[in-house]
Design a protein that fits this description.
By secondary structure, the protein is mainly alpha-helical. The protein is built from 8 helices and no strands. It is elongated, with a radius of gyration of 17 Å. The mean pLDDT is 96.
Length: 119
């Protein structure tokens, strides 16, 4: 799944046309078409937030959209840099995980532990 396909599928499912997306984002219809077809990069974070509202995305779908946007741009998902850069302990944890070769099982265990503590 690409960012463009994700957006196009959701837009079509809602019966929306390009203009329904373009006008609230302040971009042209051609620009939206190009994004959906992968000819332009995914929108910036601010526009992604607006887009999520327009498309009525759930929090899970919104996270998926941010991940797809980051993948397309070959960057960290746009909703994460501010959090990462604003917390020294997060950067420390990421580097430690990288250096120690933490895999999916370790990360999923960590996430489950966080969820357990918050319930």
């Amino acid at each position: 799944m690409t960012f463009g396909k994700f957006i196009a599928d959701r837009r079509k499912d809602l019966g929306m046309i390009y203009r329904d997306i373009a006008e609230p984002l302040g971009v042209s219809v051609v620009y939206v078409c190009d994004v959906e077809k992968g000819r332009r990069n995914a929108f910036e974070k601010e526009k992604l937030g607006i887009l999520a509202s327009l498309l009525g995305l759930t929090e899970e779908e919104k996270a998926r959209m941010y991940d797809l946007a980051g993948e397309q741009r070959q960057e960290v998902s746009p909703d994460l840099p501010e959090y990462i850069m604003g917390n020294d302990h997060v950067r420390f944890a990421l580097r430690a995980a990288r250096d120690l070769g933490a895999g999916e099982a370790e990360w999923m265990g960590f996430v489950e532990e966080l969820k357990r503590r918050n319930t």
